[in-house]
Automatic annotation (TrEMBL):
Source domain of life: Bacteria
GO molecular function annotations of the record: uroporphyrinogen decarboxylase activity
CDD domains named in the record: URO-D
Residue numbers binding substrate: 37-41, 87, 169, 224, 342
Subunit structure: Homodimer.
Protein name per Swiss-Prot or TrEMBL: Uroporphyrinogen decarboxylase
Alphabetical list of InterPro entries matching this protein: UROD/MetE-like_sf, Uroporphyrinogen_deCO2ase_HemE, Uroporphyrinogen_deCOase
Encoding gene (name): hemE
The UniProt record lists the keyword Cell wall biogenesis/degradation: no
Keyword terms: Cytoplasm, Decarboxylase, Lyase, Porphyrin biosynthesis
Amino acid sequence: MIEAQPQAASAAPLLNDTFLRALLRQPTDHTPIWLMRQAGRYLPEYNATRARAGSFLGLAKNPDYATEVTLQPLERYPLDAAILFSDILTIPDAMGLGLEFTQGEGPSFAKPVRTEADVAALQVPDIAATLGYVTGAVAEIRRALIDGQGRQRVPLIGFSGSPWTLACYMVEGRGSSDFRTVKTMLYARPDLMHRILDVNARSVIAYLNAQIEAGAQAAMIFDTWGGALADGAYQEFSLAYIRQIVAGLIREHEGRKVPVIAFTKGGGLWLEQIAASGVDAVGLDWTVDPRAARQRVAGKVALQGSLDPSILFAPPETIRAEARRLLDAYGPEAGHVFNLGHGISQFTPPDHVISLVDEVHAYSRKQRQG
Ligand code: CP3
């Protein structure tokens, strides 16, 4: 059988570009929505694929499985973007630290970075040699997003952890409630901490640029633990490296701008400074007043957020009311991407997500008419 040569995925016109337009503060007919961790354990179909893959890493390291789970939430909900299924800890894994996920305990590293010699040995990984499964997944997802009429349904987001958030896992060797080990290094040996962060920043630049070249159409930097830093330390040990990354990224690809989003959880106090880092958009958690945030960034960047994920446990009418409240607070002007303030909980009833996505689309259309 002769198969027709498929056209390059990059040649397919983008059917729904509201997400990319909103990030660039261009007008859209509705407020786009996607959800952090939209592919995950709250979906029974995700759990079924994960069982077939044998483990979380088995899933993430296989481009066919990664593609399958990336598309699962889009089959259920009319979301406005897809996000690559992977994890932020792929980079330290590629550096040789030995990533493991133990059931119920989350991620850990066999060889955490603790000593001067450990730090000196760190190197930017060869992306093609160690992270080809990620760029392979990006390319495969782009092809899978093409509909029956040759159009790409929604854009694909690539992502990475921030240098500081990666360093937290690399030095602690696992998640932490007080970050004692990594903060001890930060205060006792700032030179070592800066060397780790510099290697991480250069790795993130190479990694995100490889994702962009493979077909990621926006890039998001997850600074999940930036909010654990003191004022002053945040600017020196996290934000400075986010700025370094933004300066090193490919900003235009396939004839389109590639917007960059930075999300520092707990970073609301530093919103103006994050907005001045060169990013196109800032992700907000639920502690931030959206109306004030709009004024504080003064049209310099788009905002993404910021619903408390726990609202998805409430009855559908409450979810719809909270969505309207947030849309009213952000206002109908260009430059808002609706999202949760952090990842969706594994205990979320999947049907509740329908109410949220539907209300955001319907009410934001109404707002623009009124
Ligand atoms: O948003 C998406 O749908 C894309 C997928 C995605 C995952 N991890 C899949 C995942 C993304 C964007 C991440 C980022 C990530 N990973 C972050 C930053 C964002 C955030 O949520 O703060 C962090 C800190 C990690 C590290 C990580 N990975 C932890 C701490 C854990 C265990 C915690 C948990 O929820 O169990 C993971 C595992 C992980 N990454 C899961 C998923 C779907 C669950 C693993 C499983 O299926 O068993």
